[in-house]
Amino acid sequence: MRTFVRLAYLLVFLIVSTVSLAQQITVSGKVSSSDGAALPGVSVLIKGTTIGVPTDAQGTYTIKVPAQSSVLVFSMIGMMAKEVTVGSQTAINVTLDDDSRALSEVVVVGYGTQRKLDVTGAVAQIKGDDIIKQPSMNAVSGLQGKVAGVQINNSGKPGEAPQIRIRGAGTAYGSANPLYVVDGVWFDDISFLNSGDIESMNILKDASAQSIYGVRAANGVVLITTKKGKSGQAVVNYNGFVGYQKVTNPIKMANANEYATMVNELSTINGGKPILDPAQYGQGTDWYRQILRNAPITNHQLSISGGTEKSTYNLSLGYLYQDGIVERNNFKRYTARLQNDFQVLNNLKVGYTATGAFSSSQDEAGGIFRQMYAAGPVVPVYYADGTYGDPTDYNLGDGNNFNPQVTVDFYNQITKKTLLTGNIYGELTILKGLTFKSSFGGRYSQDETRSYTPAYVATFKQRNTTSNLEFTRPQARYWILENTLTYTKEIGDHNFTALLGQSAQRDQSYKLTASALNVPYTREGDLYLALGNADGRNVKDEGDLATYASYFGRVNYSFQDRYLINASLRADGSSKFYQGGNAWGYFPSVGVGWVISSEPFMQNQRIFDNLKFRASWGKIGNASVPSNLSTLTVANGGDLAAFFGGQLYTGASINSIIPPVTYWERGVGTDIGLEAALLKSRLTVELDYYIKETQQAIFDIPVLSSIGTSSSRIIGNQATFRNRGLEVALNWRNTISKDVSYSIGANAGLNNNVVLAVSSGANPIYDGGVGLTGGAQATRTQVGDPIGSFYGYIVDGIFQTEDEVKASAQPNAKPGDFKYRDISGTNGTPDGAITGLDRQVIGNPNPKWTYGINTNLTVKNFDLTLDFQGVAKVDIYNANLGWRYGNENFTKDFYDNRWHGAGTSNTYPSVNIGGGQNYLPNSFYVQDGSYFRVRNAQLGYTFAPELTQRLKLKKLRVYANAQNAFNFFKYKGLSPEVRANENKPTQAGIDANVYPLSATYNFGVNVTF
Q1: Cβ count within 10 A of residue 161
Q2: Given 837, 870, 898, which residue is the final one in a domain?
Q3: Where is the signal peptide (predicted)?
Q4: What pLDDT shows up at residue 35?
Q5: What is the mean pLDDT of residues 331-356?
């Protein structure tokens, strides 16, 4: 009986299968754009199933459907989806309209999405496909030159995050990074994120768009949406490249013969005798060539995505390996990401995203770029017997008494970083148009930096008698809970969307530092603190805890898609500002828009396809500052102990002067914008004028050290400054034929930064001492000038003779020294003496112009991408030139143009540039930092479907890429792209031991299975 039942089931199965096969209909066709161009990669899905196929490079497809009643869904990102019932058709050709031309392109805004038509703030969107085209190690680098008003400074150091400024500096103390929101979780840095996992990046540039994130929006907001799975068959994608990095625009230093000549000149100027015989030396050692190298780089990403109508998934794995251009310097990163969405009920959707990242780096030797610049070329790397070349043997003094190869060989520091982050959410549709969403996310990170200095003897100065092992382990735990209620209603010509939300956050960090002496080295795995001397161990720990509570709301209204209003309010409470009942800050905003092209009087015109005017105003805040600024702290230690009556008493000292109350840093911004689309939307234009004012900005102002505190600064709400500018973005795209299409985009941003008020009045804020000798500081922040302006003496030439020196305001100078301009004495007029009163603003590290040009060309199966980027009207302080304590080397440019006798030069000083008053900040060290570069050049080829189908592939593309290969600038350093030291705007633009950017050449492949 049981066998009979099984046979019956088998018979029924065969009959049903036969009927199903008999009813299947083969449908084929082509999908095109409204311009008639073929659209490859369009998803053709049988509605209600997971069965689907993509269109090939010619836009064609073939699919089998079960019945005439089947409905085919044609969809593609950036295009309007279309549904077609099969019926009796076997050939179905479809034309998809561009979403942007229909004014329904969706952009991500705070806590939701909006049609581009409805946005009243300044929001820029970059697709993930545009970011991944550049072989950038950090996704933020891919934005460089693509968004008007966004300045990005990259570093050549492996694993180093770029510095980003959105419409100028939004703060001057604490973190100047924007807020990154990745799938609902807040970050200061996204170095953990693989560029291939990004669906889109949306930059909120004005206060109206940012204020919904009030507590952290002062430096701008970047919303990142990662890729999600889509219903349909599983799609496997591999994207990888391999290549190498090469130093661009290397500095040519003086060779050994030229160096010996200058060393003798310097000794003579200072009353000594010649030290070296130039005839004994030829080219000598090129320390840049010795230490720097071509560095390999490789990146691989594998993703699997798919799902059904009820659930979707996306799994991604990534691996990056990057050698630094400095010997022994490298970086490795592993990433894993899993995302799932589930349609539990018709009105309930839940999902999660989990990401893990681990990185490990062998760090570059500290100060190595300073050493390569300064080391004497007369010193060999090694002597004939294999020992290290010793500068002491050449009587060069202590200014450059180092062999850079020794520094590299004995530097041993490894940094490891582990990050786990995730987010879970639930979205419930309560009623039609009413949705409740709850999400909980967080991150956990644990880093470790292990530094080991062995006992060694390499040269007379480069030696260490006691080994030292140190571990630094910072940890961070963060969570965020957010609940939002959204209601959307359409009543005739009126559209309303209301949002109410609540948020709570907790951010805790802890850092432990421990060290020990005399730890023996056998191998890397045997470095333990317990192996060191018990009396040489040291432990220090510190931590921080900040909590936030927030409530926010927003209302969007539109009438006939013509008149738009957007208003929001956020209230943030933070434990960082609890003193004096000042914990809460309130951040309102309002934006209005007028779609002029929808007006009746515009219907018969043929110029504009879209024309929209918008204006906005808002307030934003900044909590990215250290906690407990108004809490008085004290220090104690052996140096504060004293004996009274034969008894030892431990004393204490106040660490710093603190203000009684620290208030929120507040930003107030206004934006006026115009958006237009012309010539059948082939040309789009976007213009913005903005004013962004930071009020009650937190600064640290120097005070006299004689007051007895360990810190000679007072931190508090000290200043108000303003960024004001203009942005323009133009984009043209066109399809010439089915085989040829292209696009050209250009953007530019003009920004002027100025300090409006400082609580210290006429007393300026000085900073920028990195790389400067004698305790000098190169920047000043004062009312009427930009933040961190270069400040010093104006050079009016070079003293040629002793008589000229005696007749000047610098009687202690020597021939060959800088001749400073006598500007003002105590009475405001030249007084015949050069003093600190003669210093002036001599440069601006804040770029006035940033710009980019982005082009794409497709000819049949070939595609070419060319991206250009640059900055203009910006200055760099070349601290390398004057950073001297003795016989440091000089550049070939300095050797060729130096003063070495009356009449030889009136622009370059003598080799005594580090002596007398020559090292003081002056206009000679300030150089033009403007540059123009070919940011990215990529040539790709997509193989024809006939080949990929035979290989069982959906898509196969190969490409060759060059990044930063061509750079044009006048700056006399390695690179004019100089990052702010400690990411502080008051220390921006100073080139001292900067890890320079390099060019990257690579070959890659993209395969879809």
Answers
A1: 20
A2: 837
A3: 1-22
A4: 63
A5: 95
3-state secondary structure of 393: helix
Q: Which residue has better confidence, 153 or 54?
A: 153
Tokens found for residue 712: 């000679």
**677-691 b/e with 16+ CB inside 10 Å = b?**
bbeebbbbbbebebb
| Spatial distance between the Cα atoms of 400 and 96, rounded to a whole number of angstroms | 68
Domain final residue, candidates 837, 870, 896: 837
Q: Return the pLDDT at 724.
A: 97
What's the domain range around 814?
Answer: 795-837
How far does Cα 796 stand from its chain's mean position?
A: 39
Nearest-CA neighbor of 628 among 667, 654, 659? 659
Q: List pLDDT tens digits, range 555-601.
A: 999 999 899 999 999 999 988 876 656 788 899 999 999 999 999 99
**Average pLDDT over the chain, rounded to an integer:** 89
Give the number of other CB atoms < 10 A from CB of residue 31.
Answer: 26
CA dist., res. 408 & res. 401, Å (int)? 15
Listed range (54-58, 181-185, 699-703) with the worst mean pLDDT = 699-703
| Residue 397 domain-assigned (yes or no) | no
Q: What is the DSSP letter of 366?
A: T
Stretch among 151-165, 234-248, 779-793, 816-830 having the lowest mean pLDDT:
816-830
Q: Compute the radius of gyration of the chain from its Cα atoms.
A: 32
What would the mean pLDDT of 79-97 be, rounded to a whole number?
85
Beta bridge partners of 855: 744, 866
Bridge pairing between strands 221-226 and 179-182 = parallel
The SS3 call for residue 368 is: helix
Q: Does residue 75 form part of some domain?
A: yes
Compute the distance between CA of residue 961 and CA of residue 239 in angstroms, rounded to an integer: 14
Q: Which residues pair with 608 in a beta bridge?
A: 678
SS3 for 522-545 is: CCHHHCCHHHCCHHHCEEEEEEEE
Strand 634-635 versus strand 608-622 pairing type: unpaired
Total domains in the chain come to 2
Residues 996 and 247 sit within 8 Å (Cβ to Cβ): yes
Q: Is 35 among the domain residues?
A: yes
Asked if residue 1009 lies in contact with residue 237, where contact means CB atoms within 8 angstroms, the answer is yes
Note whether residue 921 is domain-resident. no
* Dihedral (Cα; 192, 194, 197, 200), 10-degree rounding: 80
Q: At 520, which amino acid appears?
A: P
Structure tokens at 280: 């004994």
Looking at the DSSP bridge assignments, the partners of residue 43 are 54, 75
Indicate which CATH number applies to the domain containing 33: 2.60.40.1120
pLDDT in tens, 522-533: 888 889 999 999
Token readout for 738 is 């089915």
Output DSSP code: residue 947.
H
- Kindly report, residue by residue over 260-269, the tens digit of the pLDDT: 999 999 999 9
Return the H-helix or E-strand segment holding 914: none
Secondary structure (3-state) at 218:
coil
Cα angle 80, 86, 91 (rounded to 5 degrees) comes to 85
Mean pLDDT for the stretch of residues 844-867: 95
CA distance 815 to 802: 6
What would the two tokens of residue 262 be? 């200058």
What's this model's pTM, rounded to 2 decimal places?
0.87
Q: Are the beta carbons of 575 and 630 closer than 8 angstroms? A: no
DSSP assignments along 795-810, one per residue: EEEE--SHHHHHTSS-
638 Cα distance to chain centroid: 43
